[in-house]
Design a protein that fits this description.
With 243 residues, the protein is α+β, with helices and mostly antiparallel strands. It folds into two domains: 83 residues; 151 residues, Sandwich (Jelly Rolls). The longest helix has 32 residues. The chain starts with a helix and ends with a strand.
């Protein structure tokens, strides 16, 4: 099949546009693999058209080899994006309360509502005591849809009926969605840390500065009749999923 002069003119014009676009984005920033890939395809097509005119047999093999390379590249990208999608569909943030990082820069605030870091002698578990009924923490907001699961570990020595809730901020003002996570049965098992979990829909949480804001509310600290005036917290995990 003969290649018309009109086609060649259009091809060369597009080739120059792509070439100039690549050079411009390289100089001023913004270059990406898509532009580079299009330029590469135009270069390959140019070589193929030249060989087709001068050496048709070589052009045939060039086309086959190029097609094989492109298929291999597409397969590699397909595998990469598939693995990337599944590996990043869930993001978990783990806060070791009372640990080394938390000691230097507390995950929970304000500091005047927390004790210093402590270590449980029998287990070597690091923790802090929450000394006010309401404290706060934030986590990066990864997804705007899906689920946000918040779990935490609390020391099982609270008076009967004590309740701990996780509150998720849902507006610009001081407005929160309450999720009751723990109600003490008064067992006062001094050797057990209790893991508690609550779940939010990401769509019902407010995102500010790319973070979700939460509060931990401990109801028994509001009761002057109880002698206990703190809640011991070991860790907080926040898991965000797309679905």
């Amino acid at each position: 099949m003969r290649i018309s002069k009109t086609f060649i003119k259009i091809f060369l014009t597009l080739f120059l546009v792509i070439l100039i676009s690549n050079i411009t984005t390289l100089i001023f920033g913004g270059w990406n693999f898509y532009l580079g890939g299009v330029l590469l395809l135009f270069i390959i097509a140019s070589v193929w058209m030249f060989l087709r005119k001068t050496n048709p047999e070589a052009a045939k093999y060039t086309l086959l080899i190029t097609g094989g390379i492109l298929v291999a590249i597409l397969l590699v990208f397909a595998v990469f994006f598939t693995l990337s999608f599944f590996s990043s569909s869930t993001k978990t943030y783990s806060y070791d309360i009372g640990g080394k990082i938390d000691t230097n820069n507390s995950y929970i605030y304000p500091l005047d509502r927390l004790s210093n870091s402590s270590v449980q002698n029998t287990t070597n578990i690091t923790y802090r005591n929450i000394t006010s009924y309401l404290v706060y923490f934030t986590v990066p907001a990864e997804y705007s849809t899906g689920k946000v699961n918040v779990s935490f570990s609390v020391f099982e020595n609270l008076p009967y009926g004590s309740m701990i809730s996780i509150r998720g901020k849902n507006s610009t003002n001081w407005s929160y969605i309450d999720k009751l996570g723990y109600v003490s049965l008064g067992t006062r098992n001094v050797s057990v840390w209790k893991t508690v979990s609550v779940s939010f829909n990401a769509s019902e949480l407010f995102v500010e500065n790319n973070v979700y804001a939460f509060a931990i509310e401990s109801s028994q600290l509001m009761d002057a009749k109880t002698k206990l005036n703190y809640v011991s917290l070991d860790w907080i995990n926040v898991s965000e999923s797309k679905n």
